[in-house]
Structures are given as structure tokens and as C-alpha cells.
Amino acid sequence: MDIWQKQLIESLTVPAVLRDRFGVEHGALDEVAQRYPMRITPYYLGLIAHPGDAIWLQCIPDRRELLPCLDDPDPLHEERLSPVPLVVHRYPDRVLLLACGQCAVYCRFCTRKRKVGCAAMTVTDEALDVALEYIARTPAIRDVILSGGDPLLLEDDRLERLLRRLRAIPHVEIIRIGSRVPVTLPQRITEGLCNMLRRYHPLYFNTHFNHPRELTALSAEACRRLADAGVPLGNQTVLLRGVNDRPEIMRDLVAGLLKIRVRPYYLHHMDLAAGTGHFRTRIETGLNIVAALRGPVSGLAVPHYVIDAPGGKGKIPLLPEYLVRLGDSAVLRTPSGEIIRFPNREG
């Protein structure tokens, strides 16, 4: 058994353990974990310095996840944009392929928290066959993004079969992998995995560091192995209230990412997903952070600040030409010229 597999087996999955380790009451969190599953690897749990810190907030259930809200469980309309199970086809030339229904750590801010780790996101061989058949018969698709859940929770041989089948489709030019295991389970990035991945270029990898304390020696080694295998690395950070919503934190994060050969790619404004409202900031918070980065850090380290527009309308870059008006309801212009309103509030 590999170290990463042992980490998964020994992961924390019930809030009761928090009482013994951190001396906190867990009773109110049991209901949250029953609705939105909990899993924390021993590695990532070890990054918590104290209850309520930036790592804790990302992985420990919070009773606010169950507060009544008007937010949509599926704010990006992924299910309406799913022509077959496991495929989300929002843009003409690229699709998401939800290759795995589980993650090493279930992030409390996840857009897909309504189903990740639940029976609703069981990935079967039959469903994958249907998804791959759809991609094969849709020649406009040139870019496939493996997501989930986390596709790197697949065993090497299962992941390679998937990559081989995608590479056999003539019009699929680019494969991307979206994975948080360099952050939450860096032991998964083995030399064997990297030797396998190098056979399927052009292959790109986007990971998901949110805080400088996630930049450990083990995560740096995981990224080194991927980079040495010729895999370009990008990072997509989510702007989270109480975690990384201050310029000095983001400055340390993006500078640290470049040091481990990871290019900051996106800074995502929080999606309007049910159960995540306590993480939300105002849009001005992100704009001020990006403004504070320009100059003090290299342009290589400045991510694009974007909103994924509700209703599956795609990403809107938060630049002056796309901002019509700010207030309690931001008015934004999409790249296609459509005017939309986006709730601009905390909590």
C-alpha cells in the first residue's frame, strides 16, 4: 500500500475526533457532516495550528453550512449543461469530465458540495463510457478538463486508461487535470504517476492553493515532480473571507507559488452555492487585493480575478471594462456584451 492510500484510509471523517484533538464540541457539526461529507487527510489536518485558523476554516464543518439561504445548490447550472452524465459542456470547444466523485479533503466552500462525496456522484465505468462516446462524437471539443471530485484519487492504471482513451480521440488536442492533491495529499504525486503522465502531453495541471501555510516542503516536492515531468502548473485560488481576504496573505501566497514553479492563474470570487455564504466577500475586496499585488510582486504572480456568472454564462474577468456599477448588486458586462447583476454581499 502506498503512503497516499494509507493517508486516505486514516482520514478524519467524523467530527467527534475534534474533541479529542482540539478540545472543541462537535455535537452541532454531526448534522453538517451528514449533509455535506467530511474527510481530512492526516497530512492536511496536521497543518491546522489552532481551531478557527485558515486551514481549519477550509476543512472543518461549520453549522452555518445549514443556514437557510436563497442560493442555488447548482449556481453554475452544470446539471443543465450536462448533455450526458459526467460531462459539463459550457463552452463550445471544451468540456469538464467529472472523472471521480471523491476528494482527499472535502473543502467546505466547494461549488459541488451538494454531491461530491455523496451517492449522487458515483462514477461508474458505464457512465464514463457514455461520457467518452459523447466527446468522441462531438468534433468541436478540443480541450478536456478532468475534474470531479478529484481525478487523482483514481489509481494510476485507471487514470491512465482514461488518458489513453482521450488521446485516441483525434480532435482532443489538450487535456487538463484539476486536482487539489498537491495541497491536501501531496504524497499522491509519486514518481510512478509522473512517469505515466509524461506519456500524454500536451497535458496541463491546475491545482488549488488558498493560503501560504499550504506551501509546505511536501507540496513543493509534489509540484517539482510534476514540473520535471514537463507538466505546466497553474493555480486557481478561491477568495475566502477569513482565510485569504487580505493583500498581505495573497502576496505571500502568489510569491510562494512562483517559487515552487506554479503560475497563479485565477483568483475566483466565491460562487453563489448553497452552504458557502459565510465565506463570501464583496467584489471590492478582490479588486483591492489585485491592485495591491500590482507592483510589489512580478506580473507573473498576479492572477486574473474572475466571477463565474450564475446560470452557466461563463467567467467574467473583473476588470474596469467589465464593471458597470458596484453596490449591493454589482452590474457586470460579460465578454459577449450581456449585462447581468451579481449579488455583492458578505455572508
From TrEMBL:
Pfam families: LAM_C (PF12544), Radical_SAM (PF04055). Its cofactor is [4Fe-4S] cluster; pyridoxal 5'-phosphate. Residues 89-296 form the Radical SAM core domain. PROSITE patterns: RADICAL_SAM (PS51918). GO terms for molecular function: 4 iron, 4 sulfur cluster binding; isomerase activity; metal ion binding. SUPFAM superfamilies: Radical SAM enzymes. The modification N6-(pyridoxal phosphate)lysine is found at K315. The keyword Isomerase applies. InterPro entries: Aldolase_TIM, LAM_C_dom, Lys_aminomutase/Glu_NH3_mut, rSAM, rSAM_sf. [4Fe-4S] cluster binds at C103, C107, C110. The keyword Glycoprotein does not apply. Keywords: 4Fe-4S, Iron, Iron-sulfur, Isomerase, Metal-binding, Pyridoxal phosphate, S-adenosyl-L-methionine. Belongs to the radical SAM superfamily. KamA family. This is Lysine 2,3-aminomutase. It comes from Syntrophotalea acetylenica.
